[in-house]
């Protein structure tokens, strides 16, 4: 099989989600760790416009950039091995809608938390969002284990890969996002997704997150 | 055929791109004009999370929101009539990458232009971006008429529907974005796309844009 390379850093949720899907689809790949403080020539040549990771490189193909685009690409080249999007167009649209929501509304609150003066206000916003995500989970999972139903799907990947950072911020800012009382279904889901074999080895440990956090704050 | 409704406003490029694809795919629809200063109950019930247009409503289906997601949805329900995405996964990924780029980097500069104190700086940025888009056009079109080649494709829709606003800002701020010297290929493309039969009747006239602009500035 032709070699696939993934340029990224182990601490990035956006990179982790690509790794998760590569594992789900049993696609072998070589991980190339990037130093974002000093980006490699390969990174700059592969994504000259955004200069961002993740980047997927496949022989004789142009580089594929941006996590959600890479995931759609992997789904298209390997549609039969662990499909992560449902077959029905309206269900696919709903998955994409909530993925955008998580990326553009939920995740940015954590960035806000790092810089905010009024941290309690941001924490309250995150808690409110987590309760909305609980409702989304209840609808999508329909009593089953994952957003994707019986199997890990698109939103399990998108939200699941962010859990390392969720826990990091919970500890640092002394609060809990997905808890047994407010978001009981998601609290169970967190345990389930973190023990999934395709994500084990992908989720970064706390020391890696701390290094990344300190570099970003500089 | 079951009825399709589109909630939007005639002045929105994001709504226009859905109309363009509906026309390309010969899908009949009923347009429901929204007053964004006083959003309808139907809008709020259909997209309670973002409260934004465009929204596509199809009988017995959940509402589909966000322009790029709606376009993918239309492509999936009518894949054989005027496909706008190419069949090869890496080409599809490239289309999605540049659509995101246009939405997240190019369009926001026009918003910046409306509010900026230092307008000349923003104008220079827009000019620089237009030259990058000229390069993208040359690569995608490969000597043919459109980003999509011989036929209107995804990026023709995404960028094409913004041309009403481009011209509006050009006139208001006395500069030219796509011109014969700096961006000769795109300058030709502008004329070609604006005379395409599927976009005629969709592109808003200047008075509609002015009303919208004044409402947004309030």
Automatic annotation (TrEMBL), chains A, B:
Domain GST N-terminal, by residue range, is: 2-82
Q: Which Gene3D superfamilies match?
A: 1.20.1050.10, Glutaredoxin
> What Pfam families would the database entry show?
GST_C_2, GST_N_3
Q: Which reaction does it catalyse?
A: RX + glutathione = an S-substituted glutathione + a halide anion + H(+)
- Keyword Transferase found: yes
User: Residue limits of the GST C-terminal domain?
Assistant: 88-214
Q: Which UniProt keywords apply?
A: Cytoplasm, Detoxification, Transferase
Q: What does this protein do?
A: Is involved in the conjugation of reduced glutathione to a wide number of exogenous and endogenous hydrophobic electrophiles.
State the protein's name: Glutathione S-transferase
Q: Which organism is it from?
A: Lactuca sativa
